[in-house]
Amino acid sequence: MYHDIADDLIHSIENKLFSQKLPTEHQLMERYNVSRNTIRKAIDIVAQKGLVRRVQGSGYFVNDISQAKHTVVNLTMGTSRTRYHKEMTSKIVTFDEIHADEALAKEFGVLNGAALHRIIRLRYIDKQLYSLEYAYYVKSEVPTLTLVSINHSIFDYIAKKYDIRINNSDQYLSQDALTSEQANLLGLKPKTACMVLQQSNYYKNDVLFNFSQTIYVYPNLSFYFHAANQSGNS
């Protein structure tokens, strides 16, 4: 229940329905007809995504992570989605099933020979090329994907169908030179330097269900990451 409430709050924030501050806990309890404990669990998730901060005695304020001249990628969301802007569209290059080879197993920590859904897609914002994404989903955890789901948000689809949500993720951001294959798909020259995000995503008992490599080519990108001082000491 609280995961669904958190998703709804995140959607409301991303669509500017709550632009400065969340409603009070009491108002949210009435809105969703749940207990204070459930609301606090939901808000904790939203805060972990870097979208709100608590001010003692004043409530929960929305973090403004937008930048006037930049498109912001919120890495704290656990995915590379950029929801502060218009919805993305996709062009599917490859959608098939493969088995992890030794290279994939070593790079992402998946079992050698594991059955995988493979999606290679180009993503666009307002018809402007945004990224090239190589995504893999472990079939033992995500048995099926649909063509509709891979044209939109795969994470939204598997959350609804399999109740799979990211519990934690490993993310590596680097500047890499394009291979000939990547350059051809992006319409760029081989060895062009691009920002690349490599992710391994886990759910429940640290079970790997997805890993990916996203190559960003959209102009004026900015990467946001939220960090909290867990100890409470400065």
From TrEMBL:
SMART domains: HTH_GNTR, UTRA. Keywords: DNA-binding, Transcription, Transcription regulation. Pfam families: GntR, UTRA. InterPro entries: Bact_HTH_transcr_reg, Chorismate_lyase_/UTRA_dom_sf, Tscrpt_reg_HTH_GntR, UTRA, WH-like_DNA-bd_sf, WH_DNA-bd_sf. Residues 1-65 form the HTH gntR-type domain. This is GntR family transcriptional regulator. It comes from Pediococcus inopinatus. The lineage of its organism: Bacteria, Bacillati, Bacillota, Bacilli, Lactobacillales.
